[in-house]
Amino acid sequence: MLSLALRGMRTRWVTFVGSFVALALGVGLIATTGLALAATFDAPERGTERFAEARVVVQGTDEVKADTPIGVRTSTLTNPRAVPEDLAGKLATVGPVAEDRTFPVSVPDADRRVGADTALVGHSWAIAAATPYRLTSGRAPTSPGEVVVTTGPGAQVRAGDRIQVVTPEGAGTRTVVGTVPAAGFESAVFFPAAEAARLSPRIDRVTVDADPAAVRAALGTGSGMTVLAGEDRRRADPDPDRDKEALVSVNALLGTAAGITAFVSVFVVASTFTFAVAQRRREFGLLRMAGATPGQVRRMVYAEALVIGLLASAAGCWLGRWAAPRLASWMSGQGIAPTWFRIGEQAWPLHVAFWTGLTVALCGVVVASFRAGRTGPTAALRESAVDSGTMPWSRLLVAAAVLLTGLGLLVMALVENPGDVLKRKTYITQPMLLIVAIALLAPVLVRPLTRLLTWLPARLPGAVGMLARENAAAGVRRTAAVAAPVIITVALACSLMGTTATINEAKAAEARTQTRADYVVSAGDAGRALPAGFVRAARAVPGATVSTSRSTGVTVLEEGTALVRSEARAVDSGTDLSVVSQLPVVAGKLADLDDDSIVVNEEWLTTRVGDRVPVWLGDGRKANLRIAAVLGVGTGNNGVYLTARNAAGAGVDRVDIKVAADADRAAVDRRLRAAGEASGVEVLGAGQWIDGHYPRSSESTRLGLLMILAIALVYTGIALANTLVMATTDRVRDLAALRLTGATKPQVLRLVAVESVMVVVVGAVLGAAVSAVNLLGIRTALGLLDVPSAIVVPWSTVGAVIAASILLAVLAATLPASFALHTRPVELAGMRE
């Protein structure tokens, strides 16, 4: 059987080249994404960065610990407590100390002036000795108004220059008296110790030049402080887990890409193999007529799949090794992955890709081989090109089961928890079952759908529309095989991009509904604060109600086993909050929020107004707070609300301002904007602020989705080319018959092109049907969550995908047909398969 299979492969090489290319590309894509995914599992090992020169660092405890029946559970605090001044003085008796104060600052045009590639922070120069910073020009700052700045690539600032610096006090001009090279982990501005203490009274850390044991003894027990020495000093670095956190989104993106790649490749390769076997039914009939048993025919098909699988999987692994570093470089260049992201030397992704490819090749011909084995000897005598028996009962039952499962899971999610439908894992995986179901049903759907879509073209003058309609309806297997990759690509494009856009638009609509404020001022970057001067100036404006809020978090022990941290906003009072916002309260009243209470949402286990819930606050304090109100879940942005007293250590990062109905709005606007200009912050109308923040997906998310669509589109192009080349090569006698009846070459090519376009349109309609179900599920979930929003269809993306598919299909069908038409029609008509 192996020798017979090899001879058959040599004779029908066009058919097997298509299967080889499809499988090799699939394995290559799996290997590429697998290698990139493997590189996200381990972040680079970095030693202590900022406090590399310090012997001991003392800071507030930065995590919560809870003993549970299944072990100790920990959670990171959002606002670790400060080091008390008296404790800092006590540590000075153990050894020389330096107080570290870190606060947000900004410099206009900082990327050009000082070469900053991250947000600027302010420090006291007194701490510089414990860090890697060393003066490269100028001197240390000694008087108020003097600063030392870090200088990165392209920095234009020099010692002696005067620059505008926005501090927590507001904007002001300062003299640069020295520069230090940027360390890579932050961009900083250093102030004299006395000025830093005035700008930021909070002591974040203290470095001590003493033995760690002596420092711990001086602190005693119950101080709430953590002593860091040796490698532990890294916990005091700015965002010490930034490398791991940077890889989380990359890991999620590549995991999604790998899953979709595997799905698309398995799906398309199986479809290609099935079509290739179906094309050879007359050949199998001849073998049966020659005495081959059904088992021998099946073994021959398996032997062919084994040879193709081995060769294509090996080629795909080579392709993956070549493409993975280039993918990593592109992701780094586009900001999707960190600049240091590189492909490692892992071999297991190549093993996974190779054996997946071989398994797909063998599994892809399981059903087809049984069908080939059942081919009767009389099939060799068939001359009709009309497909029959394309939909066995087994396939119909499987398709129905998959379709009902997909719809059932969607309905179950909508009934039990509509919010789950909005999560990325759900709206990415949900279309997969529907795509499989529609593709399995394609042989049943394409014929009536083709006749429906071509009803009008078939009645136009000329025979092209009628012939294209009948050819597509007669060659059901060919039509279904060509439509399959189009179904996948259109469904993914519309579902992924449409769902993301719809959810973003829903978040924007929700924000507009919940905002009563006339102006919103925010600090921008996470962890930054607005200048206190602006807050004071805004409160002094007559006719304006000002509500400040802070980013913080609360941690709760759920069911006695899991520490769950929730993002929270700390506001001045519930009364001011109710003036500037209209949150979806389902129980209780916002105005009842005070220092002894909390506002939660319906996702919390305890949601009865008046009940008390034990929580850890952002600085680690434990509190037993009364539930004042409960909010609806919405799109997921309705978090927890506390008062400012329960968010010690968090700075004001947002100000909502409501103008009274009888106030002079023009005067209020002038005073607010003047205060913003003096403080170096931008005052925006509520509508402007919402438009600037919603709906917005991060650039890395958008590029990631486009990368996934590009993978699917590339595979669609290869699959279309393979299938149409095989199909067109197999139809040379049909083309010759058209030529013998008087059709010219341009007419035949036009017929082939129209038929290709029609089949792509059929696939696009089926893919759109899958997307419609998915988007309808999203819309229903939003309705159940009381978030009214329209469905957003990414027409430009879907149109581009369909146009690219049409172009590829036309080229893949007309080029081999054009070459075939170079032969005389009489010779083509006499050719045998």
TrEMBL record:
Ribonucleoprotein in keyword set: no
A GO cellular-component term linked to this record: plasma membrane
Keywords annotated in UniProt: Cell membrane, Membrane, Transmembrane, Transmembrane helix
GO molecular function, one term: transmembrane transporter activity
Keyword presence, Transferase: no
Domain ABC3 transporter permease C-terminal: start-end pairs: 257-376, 707-823
Annotated signal sequence range: none
Regions that span the bilayer: 252-278, 299-324, 352-372, 393-415, 427-446, 479-498, 703-727, 748-773, 793-815
Protein name according to UniProt: ABC transporter permease
Organism domain of life: Bacteria
Pfam (any one): FtsX
Upper classification of the organism: Bacteria, Bacillati, Actinomycetota, Actinomycetes, Kitasatosporales
Membrane topology: Multi-pass membrane protein
Compartment(s): Cell membrane
InterPro entries membership: ABC3_permease_C (IPR003838), Macrolide_Exporter_MacB (IPR050250)
Family that this chain belongs to: Belongs to the ABC-4 integral membrane protein family.
